[in-house]
Amino acid sequence: MSIVLNVSGKIFHVSKDVLRRSPLFNNMINDSEIDSVVLIERSSSLFKHVYAYLLDPQYPYPAKYRSELDYYLIEYDVKKLYDPYADLKREMNILREEIQEIKDILEDEVVKRGNCSQYYCDSQRARGSEYCECHSR
Ligand SMILES: [Zn+2]
Description:
Blueprint: E1 2-7, E2 10-15, H1 16-19, H2 23-31, E3 38-40, H3 44-55, H4 66-71, H5 86-113
Parallel strand pairs: 1-3
Antiparallel strand pairs: 1-2
The site of zinc ion has 8 residues, from loops.
């Protein structure tokens, strides 16, 4: 039931049933009866995360290493992977929306203000005045 993997020099004794959750390993195990060590040319430190994720889909697999999941043909939901910056990104989006609202308000304000009432003057009205900066003096 257990299988020996050599992942770039590091030996892992892992469960065949758990490995089968990766389509890549599943094909490998189906194709041949494996009784020797299986060599995998991938990062051994990242394999720990991959195996933990195969063991438990609730494992907070780091989003930045998702290319490893792709390699092992393991399906995942990007939104459910662990991203230490997720909260920060959410807050930044809220701020971005607030800034846009302020911009819209300011733009409306500028449109409302219109042009100077002085004959032949196309300058924008100063705040709280019917005239531009020059003509309101
Ligand atoms: Zn003016």
